[in-house]
Amino acid sequence: MTIIITAFERSPDGGKGLARDTRVRWALEEVGLAYEVRPVSFHAMKESAHLALHPFGQIPTYEEGDLTLFESGAIVLHIAERHEVLLPREANARARAITWMFAALSSVEPVILELVTIKFLEGDKPWSKERLSLVEARIRERLRQLADRLGNADWLDGAFSAGDLMMISVLLRLKPSGMLDAFPSLAAYVARGEARPAYKRAYAAQLAFNTATPSDN
Ligand SMILES: N[C@@H](CCC(=O)N[C@@H](CS)C(=O)NCC(=O)O)C(=O)O
């Protein structure tokens, strides 16, 4: 059954890998599943054909036979369930890996997204500098807590899992800000994720997609 995911026709990041199709590509690469990509323009994303796949008019989506999924977390979990490289077989270890996926998406990603909102949508507001320092403080606190938990380990809970894939995907968004530099263990953790062959393939694929001429996609 062919797997089809959707991605920005042209990612606003120009191929830095920050759009959420990259985490889905990464999961597919980790488990060795081939996939196709359907590009979607900002306009098409809000039209009924795409809204039938994604109620909020966003990417990524995932189609496989008669299954359609949206939400990168749900998609990565669905992929991870197929292979123990992303989810351990042992029940408690599996539950902990899923916990880290939720932690990435609901305890770490939202505060990082606030930074993006301030920088790109609220930068011209008179209060944006003040808000920026509050948001940066909240991010630093989360990073400190995460670094404390990671300690000297390579991954968050034993072997690499979908929990690490999601946490690293979320932390990658901080790279341009330089905020990770104050937390060398987290910077090294992110670098370990980026060094995985599956991540490299996913990154290269989205880069090629975002730098190709539209007729190539
Ligand atoms: N919670 C969703 C967020 C999806 C999301 O924000 N997608 C972005 C791209 S990374 C998007 O489609 N933005 C365009 C828009 O919202 O119009 C997920 O994890 O999949």
Walk me through what this model shows.
Helix content is 55%, strand content 9%. The protein is built from 9 helices and 4 strands, in the order E-H-E-H-H-E-E-H-H-H-H-H-H. A 4-stranded mixed beta sheet has the order 2-1-3-4. Helix 1 (21-31) packs antiparallel against helix 7 (162-172) and helix 5 (91-121) packs antiparallel against helix 6. The longest helix has 31 residues, at 91-121. The structure holds glutathione.
Number of strands: 4
Summarize the biggest pleated sheet: 4 strands, mixed
Query: In which range does the helix fraction lie?
Result: 40-55%
Cα-atom radius of gyration: 17 Å
Q: Strands of the largest sheet, in order across it?
A: 2-1-3-4
Order of helices and strands: EHEHHEEHHHHHH
Beta-strand proportion: 5-15%
Query: Uncertain regions: pLDDT < 50 for 5+ in a row?
Result: none
Q: What kind of assembly state do the chains in view correspond to?
A: single chain
**C-alpha end-to-end distance:** 21 Å
Shape: globular
Q: What's the number of helices? A: 9
Query: Mean of residue pLDDT?
Result: 95
Task: Label the structural class.
Answer: alpha+beta
Present as ligands are: glutathione
